[in-house]
Give the backbone structure.
Amino acid sequence: MQKFQFNDQGAADLITALYQLSNPALQLEADAAGADFRFWISSHFELGQSQLDYLAGIDEQWISIAAQQTKAFLVERKPIRLHKMPEPSHRNSNGEDRGKLLDLDKKQTASYSEQDGYQQNEELLYAISYSQ
């Protein structure tokens, strides 16, 4: 599978490509994401060296939850989205950015109407923002 740009559209294109796979092929992808999330991300997105370094330094607890949730959502073909804010143009005095914040949100909605009955939806959202 080709590598995708690491942005909102690239993530959407990756999910579209994955969800076109057969169930057994998608299960292999889900298992790979669950087993080694960092490698799975780096093998599916075009990342620069600073992004790879950042990925390597993310806390293991966050990686573990991201791996579990991504695997589960892939297997069930549920929506997974990335919202990546633009990187700030201002750097602090030592040349580093002011701080990156990673959020992983699982959104669940449920509704009922006499016409449509009960409906439940879930979405997994990865958000990357920068502190000011």
